[in-house]
User: Fold these one by one.
Assistant:
Number 1:
Amino acid sequence: MNDDHGRYQPLSYFQLMEVSLRELLVEKGILTEEQVHATVQDMRSRGAERGAAVVARAWVDPGFKARLLADGTKACQELGLDVPALRLIAVENTPAIHNMIVCTLCSCYPRMLLGLPPEWYKSRPYRSRAVREPRAVLAEFGLALPDHVQVRVHDSTADMRYVVLPMRPAGTDGWSEERLAGIVTRDCMIGVAVPRAAGAAPRP
Amino acid sequence: MNETVQPSFKPGDRVVVRKAWPLGHIRTPHYIRGQVGSIERLCGSFPMPEELAQQRSGLPAQPLYRVRFLQRDVWPDYRGGADDALEVEIFQHWLDPA
């Protein structure tokens, strides 16, 4: 996972703590190495598909969309996505409002819907600049928003988790839920990109 | 069981974030302390993070709000739309009426 190219690197403080804690838990019979490995594998293999399925459902089912915006956690339970720790707030992009998610304190992220956060989401530059100059950050992601669109940055500082409900792009009439989910990327749900119908002209 | 502090703010109320710098595990970002915003919604009540970090119960639970700030209020030299906003989760014990 790291860039040491096979060179010997001493363990960092937190790596050492992780190894010590893990070995203690195994030694005392609380966990097995297999369980730890399986959990890590499960977390690593998780992508943004679940989030994309939630967005696609909201696009095709106005009732579901209303419930999602009213109570994100409950709405996800309808789709069988039930994790007690997830208190979800869905924020809706409209022609007048663009939403973007950050956690300035650490890296709070709706992992259950989007998988592991990308490295940049946890980086200091993103975390500090997203609240300070969001439009410049969005422009670097290739998203230049006109001034009349209000930018709302959500700092995920405590117990809630956020997902952006992007706008359904033009040119997707009649698409199946599955096909719609295919254009909803992780970045769209963090709010640093917008979904585009393949082949359609890019929107401003 | 009365393990929850009653919410004292409602959506639309103007609030100011306490300008305090206690040590410990604080979920109120530095950049927003002392700023004035308005309550967007009540998120529910949750054990106090400062207390949880000390392995105490964190009870009674504190109401947690989403507070909306205008970017131009937070950053005087902000470049962007006048309505651009920042929404931050802040616990009630960090808020006073503005």
Number 2:
Amino acid sequence: MTVAGHIAPLAETPPALRPVFRWGTVASLLLWAIVLVLCLVPFVLVLVISFGHKVEGAGWEWAFTTENYLRFFVGASWPTETTFLYVTQLYWSMRYAVVASILAVVTALPFTYLMTRQSRRAQAMWLVLMLTTLSLSEVFIVMGWDIILSNNSGLPMLFAASGLTDWLKESGWFDVLREWGLANPRNVKFKTSEVATVLTMSYLVWPYAVILLYPALSRLDPSLAEAARTMGARPWTVARTVILPAVRLPLMGTLLFLFVFLLGVYVAITVFADPSQHTTAVSIYENVRGSTLNAPFGAAQSVILLVTAAVFLLLGQRLSRKSQGPA
Amino acid sequence: MLCVFGHIFMSLAAIVVALPIVIVCSAALNGGRTMYFPPEDPTFSRFGEFFFSEPVWTEALWNSVIVAVGSATLSVLLAWPIAYGLWKTGSRGAKLLAGLGSVPFALPPIVFGVGLGFFWAFLGGLGSIWAGIISHAVLFLALPLVTISIGLQAIDRAHLDAAATMGATESVTFRTIILPQTLPYTISGFFFALVLSFNEFIVMFFVSASAFATVTLQIFNSLRNGYTPTMAVAAVAFITVSIVVFSAVARWGDLPRLMGADQSRT
């Protein structure tokens, strides 16, 4: 900024020759270099190393082999033997992420709408609570839900103590819960179960959903909904015909953001999901820093996770464009 | 009728959001080594262990503070010229640069963590605390970038025109109008980055290579051995920091506006 002060007397010289432009160029080149190196190179490295070759007991070496990708889709000892272990993990990644993000958005939408109808002061208080839970580390959130859901404390104990378990057994619901994997022979159980996993993941991204839906909903003109109501529309009709169409795009964007975020969740899965239902993120961790140590394969799985995210983003974009077109 | 349903729904949501937080906080009072709810033999001695007497935790806390403050400062310093260029020129290049800077935050952190692990292994920074600081600065670059951009857009163009007609140079305008008017937004961006860095552990896990640990990383590493009440103390401390920071942003900055609320209605 002092540069601009120095060149003030040189104002007669043609603009192109002013030294400030050269300084500006150097500075912006430097900025570009920093951002490119730090934001892009790590991802490029993941891509390049995903084609590398693992050396038994000695790490890995540069190569150009597709063996890691082949292993992902048909297993390591293909063609003698085919396993779909890694594809199954990707399936669980997507399944958890889809269910949890939809659950979060569906519950966050009415909440955020009601929140934006409150006073500015109340909104600020809600936002503080949302931002606090949003920034709260996954380890703390999992810790909390673990205490709530684990078998010898929290909800199962509450179920047994309050007699709810006995009531469930009498009414026959207990067998249904057992079929769903939510009960052992003696009591209800939530660890390990898909319900607990999805609930925790949904909780994890819920404040994100509120924060992301907030701008669109707070800009919604309240006179529209009011007009519909005075014309005799029932609340549900107002929601369906006035509010939902107005926030369709941000809704889709929020859903996609939550989905991509949830693809990478690690701690919640390892604590709440059955090992047979573990995800790609868990496998990446095991391969890069955990017990199996196969960095190129971990990198290949990371690439596949990114490609999955990209595919869903593209699909979402196409879907929302279609919904925007002539109805 | 709808109003009643609305209030019930909102209270229910608030309870569910607060439930795990309340339970973790109360578990910090446990006297023994195990997490019970409700706490058994309530005591505050775990707080002393976490903040003063247990070197594992005091060291981790110190690392957390260094990484959070360092990375938040760095990411604000990096975000300022990017946001300023975007606001000043609005060119395609500036947009691309800002987009690139937001990529790490938008993608699953585990992938960025794996990439940074390779990156620092090549540069020889793996396991050093400055590599951790730079990594977090890049990961959370998007936050100050967004808040500073919002702040720049909020500047009244009439002030800039007035300054220009009175013959103010670019540096004077920057010092007297742009910087003071965007200061609250810069500070908000700093604190957003600070709090999220405080709580992040996946990227730090890959970058630290077990050479050092922040508080959340320390908890993550000892997950397999089960929870201890001291970890819950860490949770209490972190939640307190978040509430204080965000309440300060709400008090002195315009939180609804930062989150994208409409300005015309109050």
